[in-house]
Structure formats: structure tokens, C-alpha cells
Amino acid sequence: MLGSLGALARAQFDRKPVRYSLVSVVAVGVSQLVLILCNALLDWTAVPSNLMAVSIGSIPSYALNRSWVWGKRGPSHLWREVVPFWAFALLGLAFSTLLVHLASQWNDSTLVVSAANLTAFGLLWVAKYLFLNALLFKVVDEAADDVADDVADEELATT
Predict the structure, then answer these.
(1) What values do phi and psi take at 107, rounded to 5?
(2) Is a pLDDT exceeding 60 seen at residue 137?
(3) What is the C-alpha to C-alpha distance for residues 69 and 72, in angstroms, rounded to an integer?
(4) Contact 137, 69 (CB under 8 A)
């Protein structure tokens, strides 16, 4: 019984959506910690606190999503991975900052600011997964990937 339970647990952690969810828990935890620290302890206003929180939380999100969820190894590809990921992160930053700003106009308590940040994150969560899975960290044939990298490197060398 315990063996089959262990096998079930291992099988679940091998699934991309479960891993993505766990990475999200880490990123949200980091973001919320930074948000609360900046807003409540350092007495920053809501918007700068949110900007710092989302920026810091995006770092483990990128690293863990790329390596653990999608199994990418080696150096990141600037135009196919880094730029699109951070563009999407900036979109999330803008949306969460808007919600945090609106919420803080109503009530500037740390709890309300934190809830606004979490709401924005929750609303974008599914869209981000679909974006990362379909476009950004899509697993392709390694040979085709190498050829594309070689072509991109040649284009950069000729410009």
C-alpha cells in the first residue's frame, strides 16, 4: 500500500501542472514576504512595495519554471526565453500594480495590499501557464533547436 502511494506521489510530481503549481507557491511566498516586509516593516507605500515584491518573486519563478517544470538545461536563450518571460512578468507587474494601487486608495492596510497582489496573480496564473507551455519553454526536437541557435548566432555575427 505504501509503495503504491509513493509511486502515485512520484507520478504526480512528474506532471507539469503540479510542478508549475509548486513553483507558483514558491514565487507567491517570496513575493508576499517581500511585499509585507516593504509595506509593513519598511513603511513603503503600496505601489513601490508591489514593484519590489513582483520583481524579486519573478527570479525564482523563472529559474524554477525553466529548469524544474519544463526541464530546460544550459544557458537561457535571450530572445526565445528570457525576453518573452520578462515581458510577461512586466505585464503581470503592471496588472498587479494597478490592482494594488486601486486597493490602496480604498484601504492602505498591508492585508488589503497583499490581497490585491494575490488577486492579480491568481487571475493571470492560468494564462501564464498556457503561455509558458505553448510558446516559451516548449520542448522541441534538440537537433532542430541546435540548428535554430546556429542560424541565430550566424545572423548576429553578420550584423
Answers:
(1) -160, 120
(2) yes
(3) 8
(4) yes
